[in-house]
Design brief:
Blueprint (H helix, E strand, L loop, with lengths): L1 H16 L9 E3 L3 E3 L4 E11 L4 E3 L4 E10 L2 E3 L4 E10 L2 E3 L4 E4 L7 E5 L1 E9 L4 E4 L4 E11 L7 E5 L6 E5 L4 E5 L1 E3 L2 E3 L6 E3 L8 E2 L6 E2 L13 H19 L3 E3 L6 E3 L3
Parallel strand pairs: 1-3, 2-4, 3-5, 4-6, 5-7, 6-8, 7-9, 7-10, 9-11, 10-12, 11-13, 12-14, 13-15, 13-16, 14-17, 15-18, 17-20, 19-21
Antiparallel strand pairs: 22-23
Length: about 270
């Protein structure tokens, strides 16, 4: 009962504030706690910040049109849906549950993922620009990783925030991936997870811009080395057989009634 009242109260306040321009400055959750429940809140391209000591339990709700999601407190995803255009920054506790984080670009913000998060689903789709991962950061994806550009002329550009200093991804071994029309540089897929977009970049209508590990061709198994002694061994075997044949002499067959051999006719 208390949870339902709290949820209704929060949604009512957010709904009342939504038409006002002041909301675009964002909402800060300081030392308090909010339970979203099953509601949907359109943030109108404003930011949501959870400070240390603050918490948001999204449960199965939806936060749409977030410009930035900044968490230094506790964010419980459960089965929620977060639609973020700009920055996803987690330096607190993100309990991903079975939630989905969708980076949309709908608010026209530069899309950046920083801090470290354990996602259930991470979807980056429909961006006309780029997605940047903080260099040195590690993002884990337990279920589904989607990285989709618009088309071959508008690929999703995926970069580390510092050229030459990689960011890392770990997609669980039993997870799924959908990667197409991307341009990737300085992103490492760590060995504890899946290799990404395995094969020739052309197969994914994508570009390997360098500095990647376990992407594209780099994720292919190494070619089986050709034994350099194979030809020499074959020649040696041939010589041995030839010498054995010469020492044995012409083929012989037994003479009827005798236990001796005689040379066959040529």
């Amino acid at each position: 009962m208390i949870r339902s009242v709290r949820f209704a109260y929060c949604v009512a306040i957010l709904s009342c504030l939504m038409p006002f321009q002041t909301l675009r400055a964002g909402i800060d959750i300081g030392g308090g706690s909010i339970v979203l429940g099953g509601g949907r809140v359109d943030m109108g391209c404003s930011a949501l910040t959870i400070a240390q000591g603050g918490s948001l339990s999204a449960e199965w709700g939806e936060l749409a049109n977030l410009s930035d999601m900044v968490n230094a407190g506790t964010l419980s995803g459960a089965q929620a849906r977060f639609e973020v255009s700009g920055q996803w920054n987690n330096t607190g506790a993100f309990l991903g549950g079975q939630s989905s984080v969708i980076i949309t670009g709908d608010c026209g913000e530069a899309s950046v993922i920083s801090g470290q998060s354990d996602f259930w689903n991470l979807v980056v789709s429909g961006l006309s620009g780029s997605i940047t991962f903080q260099s040195g950061s590690l993002q884990r994806i337990a279920n589904e990783l989607v990285l989709l550009g618009q088309d071959a002329a508008n690929r999703l550009v995926i970069r580390s925030s510092q050229p030459g200093q990689p960011a890392s991804l770990v997609l669980a071994l039993d997870g799924s991936q959908d990667i197409f029309h991307v341009n990737v540089r300085d992103i490492h897929a760590l060995p504890e997870g899946q290799a990404l977009a395995v094969g020739d970049p052309f197969e994914f209508q994508s570009v390997d811009a360098g500095g990647n590990r376990r992407w594209f061709r780099d994720a292919l198994p190494p070619p089986v080395p050709v034994n350099s002694l194979t030809s020499a061994a074959a020649l040696l075997l041939g010589l041995v057989l030839l010498l054995f044949g010469m020492r044995a002499g012409p083929m012989q067959r037994p003479i009827a009634g005798h236990g001796k051999l005689r040379k066959s006719r040529s």
